[in-house]
Structure formats: C-alpha cells, structure tokens
Amino acid sequence: MFFIFGSFILQSLSIELFLSIALAKMSMGKIKKLLVANRGEIALRIMRSAKEMGIKTVAVFSEADRAALHVRFADEAICIGPPPSSQSYLVMEKIIAAANETGADAIHPGYGFLSENEAFARKVKEVGLIFIGPSAESMEIMGSKLGAKAAVAKFNVPLVPGTAEPISDITAAKKIAKEIGYPILIKASAGGGGKGMRIVESESEFEEQMERAVSEAISAFGDGAVFIEKYVAQPRHIEFQIFGDQHGNVVHLFERECSIQRRHQKVIEEAPSSVLTPELRKKMGEAAVNAAKAANYYNAGTIEFILDDKLNFYFLEMNTRLQVEHPVTEEITGLDLVKLQIKVAEGEKLPFIQEDLKIHGHAIEVRVYAEDPANNFLPDIGTLKTYKRPQGHGIRVDDGFEQGMAIPFYYDPMIAKMICHDETRERAIEKMIRAISEYEITGVETTLGFCDFVMHHESFRSGNFSTKFVESFFKPEILKSNFTEEEEMIAGVLAVELMAMTPQSQATLISPDKSKWRKRLKVER
Ligand code: MV4
C-alpha cells in the first residue's frame, strides 16, 4: 500500500515536472521584447509587426538619429554612439549591451549593417539571445560565392559555367577561360555589389583585368580570391524569396524581378516577373528551395538568379537577410514576412506548405532616393521642405521621415519605398504613375521623376528589358527640361509680367516650388 502510494506521488510529481518543462520550452521561444538593430524605414517596418504581436520594442540610435521616427515609435530607445555607423550601428558590443540593458530577448538586424555578419549572429546566440535570421553556419556557407556555388552544386542547382576554385595561376586561368569561351567575367569570391568584377572580352586583356580584379578585391574585402565565369550578356535579374523553419521545411514565395538597377543599386522591383511561365517558375522555385536546403537554411532568404535571353537560369548567390524589396512579395502573397521571421525564430513550424501559396495580382516597388538622376544619381542631402505621401487603394509607402526632417548625410539616402498593388501589371503601372504624380517632395532632388520615366517607357511596359535598361535608355537630359518651346515662351512672358507686379501679387501667382510652375504653365496654355 505504502509502495503504491509512494509511486503515485512520484508519478504525479514527474508528470508535473514534465508539464512544467514542456510549458517552459513552449514559452522559452516566445519573444517578449525585440531590439531592432537598424534605423529608418526598416526599423519602423519591423517594430510595427512586433507591436501587433504584443512584443515590446527597443530602438537603438546614433547621435544623428535622436529625432528619428524609429526612436519615437519604440517602447524604449538607447543611444549607441556617434553618427558614423562604424561607431554606432555596426558595433556589435554596443548593440548586445543595449539588449542586455533593456532585457530584450531577441535582435532583428534588418538589412545592411550587421544583417549578414555571421560573427554577430554567433555572438547574439552565445549571450542567450534569439537572432531573427538564419544560423551563423548558413551565413558562413553563403557568405563566400565559391563556397555557395560548391554547396548548391551538390543539390542540382544550375550554375554559370566557370571555375569551382579560386584562380591564382595566370597561365592555367587563361586556359580555362579559353575553354569556357570569351567574353568571361572575373569575380571576387568575397564580392558583392559588382565590386571586384571585371569583364574580359579577349585573351589579350586577361592579365590586366585579372590584376585589377584581384587588387579591387583586396582593397574592398581584404581577400583577393577571384574566380572565372562565362559572361551572360544582358541578363535579367530574378530572385526567389525563400523561407525555412527550424524543422527542415523550406518553401519559396515566388520571384521578384529586379533588373531595373543602376550601378548595382536596385531602383524598381516587381513581383511576379513578366517573363516566367508557370513551368519555369516551378523549376526555378524548386532550384531555389534546393539551394536553401544546401545550407540547412531557416528564416527568410533570397536566391539570386540570372536569366539569359533563352530563359536559361543560373544561380548567382544567396542573400541571408530580409531584403529591401520584400514588400512586393508581401503584396502578392498576403503574408507579413517579418511576423513569419519572428515565429520561425521562436521555433514555430511554417504554417503552410508550397501548394497553399498562390500569387495574387501584381506589385511594383519604386525606391525614392534623395539623389539627382539628372546629375549621375548623386546624393542630394537636405531637408524635406514639403513631404506629402500619395494615398489610395493598393498604395503602400514605407518611409522613415516626416515633413521638415533632414536626411542625414551619414547613411543611405533612401527616403521611402512606394509599393503599388493591383490585379494586373498594367493596372499596377497605372497606379504607380498616379501615385508618383501625387507624391510631393521638395527640398531635395529625388528619383521620382526617373521612376516616372521608367513607368512610361515602352521597353518597361512591354516587359522586354534587362539589367542594361538604365544605361541603354536613360539619358540625364530627359529629366533636365521637358518643357516645350511654347512652354518656355510662356514662361518668358510670365516673367516679364511678374516683374511689373507688387511682391504680394507675385507671391500669389507663383510658388517657390518649381514643380508647381510647370502645372501653372500647363494651365496657362
Ligand atoms: C554576372 C553577370 C553576367 N554573367 N555573372 C552583378 C553583381 C553580382 N551580384 C553578379 N552580377 C552579375 N553577374 C555572369 N556570369 C551579370 C551581372 C550583373 C548584374 C546581376 C544582377 C543584377 C544586376 C546586374 C548588373 C550588371 C551585371
């Protein structure tokens, strides 16, 4: 009897213990407070999703960002140093200290800054915090281009013909280049953004270009390893959004077309791509999922492909972060990718399988930079004298500014991302044209006029364009003056009339905003 009673107590004790461990495990992954190690629109975008999930938010900011919107939006904010990012947003210790000080249990790196830094991901984990992103091991595999190519090759992902190893011996390299066939590309293994990349048209320029590629790679990445690939002329840049959980499930969330870029900086992205057939989408999607599996990948990632004129596709690299252009994927899938990232980081399984996912309509994103497209896209830092966002159905503006704010000179000059979503590509373009015309920004030059030019361009509208779009079709003069001779004559007449007026009537006739002069001239006509 005593024995039975004893074992009953023991049993119920062990059940209780089991239950409490299980409960602790279930809530262990639950994030209560999230530190966002970023600034601007992406910090706000991440915090919005966290807030909806009942998660408290912590902002970090540099001295240049004291008045920034992400600081005001967060539940708590900590200053992490002087304006240069090398002394603030890039200092791992300061960010981890801020997390400890505020009792945050997770860190979201956003994009840029520390988002693809494997040492940071490792450190965050070591101090017992959750890193919202992939494992440091996955980041390490994909961080080297050659390492990434070697890993995905084992999973049947198509690669551009080329060398699998870094090249150092010129004679051997020339022999390989000849076999591949000119033109070829020399790329830096540690590369990114086209740095350390050289086209070689023929054998006679091989040595010179190789020397340049190596020295560029050393100065930019401290690593001179380069490799050779067949040069794909006028490719399209198509990337697949993938998502994995920590239980081995990986799906793709379709593609984004990112061919409209200048100097390796994207300006316009859309989803889906107008060149993919359902069959090609399925094939590329499967290759993207395989590439992610090759790195035991979880959380959000992007597989970059180039597509040649015969619709052959090749893996280029993987980006192990949430990307700037993720909203177009959100619009066509109806998913909130940041919420999904947080849930996956908490240990949850993906709530869907591939077959559940469908494309809804078409989404286009334009990046509004404080840059002057008429002047070689030079950054134009200043204060937003007027800042009025467009409104209406299917328009989303992700930004980090309000009227009167200054764009800090220390960081990326992106003012906003504007995303238009509609039933078809044509309607999304029409909506974007309307939205651009409604967007009012004065005080700085912006890329809005350039984006308007692209939206009207026959090559963009037909869907028949490549990564060469900007250099082939865009001439700065296009934006410099598009007044007709007649308009310029009216302007002259108005100027004479104005000189004869009192200052008060002058002020009522024209606004200091140049864009209004044009509207006025059109009315006069
Ligand atoms: C290429 C290529 C053509 N052939 N590789 C540019 C940056 C880096 N991510 C890879 N890039 C390219 N690799 C081969 N074998 C053309 C580019 C390229 C490009 C790629 C994607 C988006 C825009 C681009 C603009 C110019 C060149």
Description:
The protein folds into six domains: 1-25, no CATH class; 31-132, 3-Layer(aba) Sandwich (Rossmann fold); 161-230, ATP-grasp fold, A domain (Dna Ligase, domain 1, 2-Layer Sandwich), CATH 3.30.1490; 232-360, ATP-grasp fold, B domain (D-amino Acid Aminotransferase, Chain A, domain 1), CATH 3.30.470; 367-482, D-amino Acid Aminotransferase, Chain A, domain 1, CATH 3.30.470; 485-524, no CATH class. 40% of the residues lie in helices and 21% in strands. It is built from 20 helices and 20 strands. The strands form five sheets. It has an eight-stranded antiparallel β-sheet, sandwiched between helices. Strands 3-2-1-4-5 form a five-stranded parallel β-sheet. Strands 7-6-8 form a three-stranded antiparallel β-sheet, covered by helices on one side. Strand 1 (33-36), helix 2 (40-52) and strand 2 (56-61) form a beta-alpha-beta unit. Helix 13 (425-438) runs antiparallel to helix 14 (448-456). The protein is globular, with a radius of gyration of 26 Å. The chain starts with a helix and ends with a helix. 41% of the residues are buried. Ligand MV4 binds next to strand 8 and strand 13.
